[in-house]
Amino acid sequence: MVTTTNIHEAKKMSTTNKQINLTAEALINAALARHEGELASNQALVVKTGARTGRSPKDRFIVKDELTNTQVDWNTINQAISPEKFDALWQKAQAYLDSKESSFTSYLRVGQHDKLGITVEVNTELAWHNLFAHVLFIRPETPINPPVQWTILSVPGFKTDPERDGVNSDAAVILNFTKRCILICGTYYAGEMKKAMFSVLNFLLPTHDILPMHCAANAGKAGDTALFFGLSGTGKTTLSADPERFLIGDDEHGWGEDGIFNFEGGCYAKCIDLSQEREPLIWNAIRYGSVIENVVLDPQTKNPLYDDASLTQNTRAAYPREFISERVQSNRGQQPDSVLFLTCDLYGVLPPVARLTPEQAAYYFLSGYTALVGSTEVGQGSGIKPTFSTCFGAPFFPRPPSVYAELLMKRIQQRGCSVYLVNTGWTGGAHGEGGKRFSIPTTRSIVSAIVNGELANAAYEILPGFNIEIPLEVSGIESRLLNPKKNWSDQEAHHKNARILIEKFIENFNRFKVSDAIKNAGPRINS
Fold first, then answer.
1. pTM
2. Is 195 an active-site residue?
3. Is 184 within the bounds of a domain?
4. Which of 52, 55, 179, 411 is catalytic?
5. 308 with 382, same domain?
6. pLDDT tens, 495-520?
7. Rounded to an integer, what distance in angstroms lies between the CA atom of residue 188 and that of residue 49?
């Protein structure tokens, strides 16, 4: 039987030439020497992840044991695997890594919190995977010594056997909360490490009265904090990297009695169609010390071709927070003043911004309506389609959704902060049917009006059907853009699309057992 103790003992006895706590420069040099990638003209390390260019949700498992049996919301996302299957697979994966001439280990931290941060040992087959963890996780000011609290074992070259190993394919991502370890095998997509540790904190923190969130966060010069919830591709990273504000983090945070804290020490930005003009902070952050995945290079100049999606729409850039000059040094923030739910509406019937009541906030948080953009998951395809992702991050939350929704309501009511629904999707028509997506400058103007307090004192009207408040005026925005109905030349088509989306909301929400106040806060079909 594999225990936490003999996992650490096995690592001590390994004959592998383990490279420990290498610097970013040393890891880059190792990756280049091992032909794992190449340098682009901007000196970022460029790598390819093979067939899997996104997460593999069907290959993700949680060990079902005494600890997790009644605590995890078991479903098609949180799939169960037995402790025995995990133990056998861990031993095979460890033996595989031990057979290699060299491997890479870093001692890092996840969670910028004095009491609730987690130390993690990251063991990888590839140098660039260790660099990725070095960039994305928190690099401690003083060295961390073993034993650590959690262990990651990443061996992409080790393929699983579904029949033998009790998994679904030749890859697996398995979280073991009792033994505090994560096994990732058969996939070269480094984002699995990041999201696995996010899932760990999402399981642990609610027991400490902390709301874990799939959101970005930034702060104004006065310290006022804003949160940006949303799935990949809806604008979290782009909108939080605001030249007028200070970045806390772009993807994962906790919210407790003492404010906001980042889970990470780096950012992981989508870079399809990246523009220096529209996204200067991200553009400038991609340099030596960062990693870009599945980005095609010009064969002559080695310039990244950010508009080339021939490998995937889900091209990515990982860079340290330090590469964003305008950032909050502490990696933490005050209690938030503004909470933004970013949704990418394909039907073109949601407004660019709406103010939500606390009950509506719970409704839209649980609904998590948006669009799947840019093939962030294996098997998702290259198209774009609507989805409802609970808590704006269903693949990463092991506990029942009500746990997170109740914590959100508690925090909003304690703080009294304003909550807004911000549509970064289509208007004037549906996606592919004549509609146009809101431009980044338009959405930035909306966000600016939220964080500077303008919308707190604006005049509002009710949007029928959705029953949400929309402002009559926003500085720098044409008034007609604020009411989606006014942007449609075909009113019958608008009415039809609005009804379709409302019906989808109602159908999706029927699965939640919540108070009547929350259930009645959602959209309703008007006769």
1. 0.93
2. yes
3. yes
4. 55
5. no
6. 999 999 999 999 999 999 888 999 99
7. 5
